[in-house]
Design a protein that fits this description.
Among the domains are: 127-138 and 145-219, Trypsin-like serine proteases (Thrombin, subunit H), CATH 2.40.10; 230-327, Thrombin, subunit H (Beta Barrel), CATH 2.40.10; 337-425, Roll (Pdz3 Domain). Helix content is 24%, strand content 33%. The protein is α+β, with helices and mostly antiparallel strands and 428 residues long. The radius of gyration is 35 Å and the shape is flat. The chain has nine helices and 18 strands. The longest helix is centred in the first third of the chain and has 37 residues, at 21-57. The protein has a six-stranded antiparallel β-barrel. A six-stranded antiparallel barrel has the order 7-8-9-12-11-10.
Length: 428
């Protein structure tokens, strides 16, 4: 009994420790904060790595190179093919009479004709022509920044499913900090410069396909390129876009000359002159009556071949390869010569080799560095043989800037032309 009484002092009552609410709150907040931070880091990591992982697992195919829509040329019938062989002539020929009725045209008939041409031109304009607005930032006398908008005409050339490509006048957008494209349904999207050719003064601008509304896409159609050769002489044409500097102006006329060329570095461009009035701000296209684009309008200036007030255009065929390179994001290759064809009669009478005749050498160009001289005739680039300056242009546009190749020239010696092969680095 005494032992039990002696052990009573060991017994104690255990009490629960009181809850520290402040400490619990701090831990709760810390845990929640760490969870939020971890979630943010996880989201950020996902956003950064997801495109990379997607590209590795599901690589997006690059669009196929763009080729411009061009009217196919059917082979012309030769004069000898028009002559019938004797056995093809039937023995019995039935003579038929054709009655020609004289019809007098009234003023209303001319009105209907022009109305029909106008409807056709507006059909092309609605599908293929856009307004290009150049937004420039400037500062007035009081250091206030204001925007200055300039407008010109653009031509829909092609689309690859990812972008739509338009031809535009480079001088109108050169200093723009923002470029806007307005379609025929008055919807407007932002564009950027895809590429520029300083020789011709033309640019290709592109618009992301995702930024164009579905209804607008259903309206759009790439322009069809026609033939801008000698067959256009005296042909009726329509100037669309801004031929007179104003929006949606239309001018009817005819081609008065096709035999002038603008000799530029490594390219000769046919000049189509017309009998139509021009303006210093002329932009747009020259269209034939089949709705095909045959020329790109140029602003009127004193350098025009037919006078400063006559509308002229670059022949579209000479620009096609340059435009295609710009659309596909490729730089324009240059060697640095101003040349021409060797006429057939000069070749036969004087023995000048056929090829690209070098009239001038551009200063500090790859041609000058390689040792090409005025008077040389380029007969081969790499392994491609040439018999004209036109072939020289075609081959050059297949080469890449900064690539190495050889140029074979025929240079006049004391008695005859001598062949020389020169190493050259293609310029840009």
């Amino acid at each position: 009994m005494e032992q039990n009484q002696n052990l009573d002092f060991i017994k104690e009552q255990v009490k629960e420790r009181p809850i520290n609410r402040k400490k619990l709150m701090r831990r709760t907040i810390l845990t929640a904060s760490m969870a939020v931070l971890f979630g943010m880091i996880a989201c950020l990591t996902f956003l950064v790595l997801e495109p990379v992982i997607s590209d590795l697992l599901y690589p997006e195919e690059e669009p196929a190179p763009v080729e411009l829509r061009e009217e196919t040329v059917t082979e012309e019938m030769k004069p000898e093919d028009m002559i019938l062989e004797p056995e093809e002539v039937p023995v019995e020929v039935e003579v038929s009479q054709t009655v020609v009725e004289k019809v007098e045209l009234e003023a209303f008939d001319y009105q209907r004709l022009y109305r029909k041409m106008y409807i056709e031109s507006q059909n092309v304009a609605a599908k293929s022509l856009v307004t290009v607005t150049s937004v420039d930032a400037d500062v007035d006398w009081f250091d206030n920044i204001y925007e200055n908008n300039g407008q010109s005409s653009g031509l829909l050339l092609a689309e690859n499913g990812r972008e739509y490509f338009f031809l535009a006048e480079y001088s109108k957008i050169a200093d723009a900090y923002k470029i806007l494209v307005t379609f025929s349904d008055d919807t407007q999207v932002q564009a950027h410069i895809k590429g520029t050719d300083e020789q011709t003064g033309l640019s290709v601008i592109s618009v992301p396909a995702a930024s164009i509304q579905k209804a607008t896409k259903e309206i759009l159609e790439s322009a069809v390129l026609g033939i801008s050769g000698t067959g256009l002489l005296a042909a009726p044409v329509i100037a669309l876009g801004r031929p007179l500097g104003a929006a949606e102006s239309v001018v009817y006329g005819m081609v008065t000359s096709t035999d002038n060329y603008l000799n530029l570095e490594d390219i000769n461009v046919r000049i189509l002159t017309t009998d139509m009035a021009a303006d210093a701000n002329s932009t747009g296209i020259l269209m034939n009556l089949s709705g095909q684009v045959v020329g790109v309008l140029r602003p009127a200036n004193k350098k025009n071949f037919a006078g400063e007030n006559v509308l002229i255009a670059y022949g579209i065929n000479d620009l096609r390869r340059v435009i295609e390179r710009l659309i596909n994001g490729k730089e324009i290759a240059h060697i640095g010569i101003i040349g021409t064809d060797v006429p057939r009669e000069i070749h036969e009478e004087l023995g000048v080799p056929l090829g690209a005749y070098v009239k001038e050498i551009v200063m500090d160009s790859p041609a000058m560095n390689a040792g090409i001289q005025s008077g040389d005739v380029i007969v081969k680039i790499g392994t491609e043989e040439l018999i004209s300056f036109t072939e020289y242009q075609k081959v050059l546009q297949t080469l890449e800037p900064d690539s190495n190749t050889t140029v074979t020239v025929m240079r006049q010696g004391p008695e005859e032309y001598e062949e020389m092969t020169l190493d050259i680095i293609i310029g840009r």
